[in-house]
Write a structure and sequence with these properties.
32% helix, Rossmann fold, 9 helices, binds zinc ion, globular, alpha/beta
Length: 278
Amino acid sequence: MLKPSPPLACTVRDCGLWLEARGPVLTCTRGHAYDVARSGYVNLLQPQDRRTLAAGDAKEAVAARSRLLAAGVGRQIVDGFVARAAALRLTDGAVVAELGAGGGNVLGALAAARRISGVGIDLSTSAVAHAIRAFPDVTWVVANADRRLPLLDRSVDLVLSLHGRRNPAECARVLTRKGWLLIGVPGRDDLIELRESVQGHGVRHDRSEALTAEHLPWFALVERFSLRATHRLEPDALVDLLRGTYRGARRSLIDRIDALKPLEVTLATDVWLFETAR
Ligand SMILES: [Zn+2]
């Protein structure tokens, strides 16, 4: 069963009506219906939104990230991100949505810390199936967060995206007038040592100006900060970092890691906190 009335919206083109839970089915008043999986998540993907799906890669990536987190790798990043979200003035029952929620560690941790109504969205069925086993109190939805979000207008108090999808126009649509948007993206020197060893060079991408600019039509910047950690990692963990971080890390890259020795690796995430500006 789904949790009580999350503000989910029908994803049939040009519909967008509220989805009400009726037993094992979610349905809008136009009669569009979605089965709730036995484990409790719902798949709202429309056929035209499935094209980018690479289920195999996603499953490997989720498993790799779980192994890393279980070993404490990336834990400071997740904990720091969740702590910033938990420090926001959220009322009891506040709706918090996460885009690209993956295995659910961020939203699951926030739901354990605060009385929120969580809605985690990911394109990967295997990621969502993993998330609902670990965090059954959150609503988990399979949907394409690059398209129209499966959420009602002005129904969400906080949107989270940690290394996930970004969709500023849609975030602005679904957030309330006093909504928050918390985004974390890889910093310039994220995994720089690993990228240098594997590729022979490490490009230091700086996404900060572009990210700020793409949000300013709808949002005001409240705060920026960085989360950092370093870990000395064995080759197995280095392979997991590539699998879990870079979508579809190429086999040739992973093969080259087998020749690597243990490596000190920097994890760096830049975080933006925006509020809706209307
Ligand atoms: Zn509908």
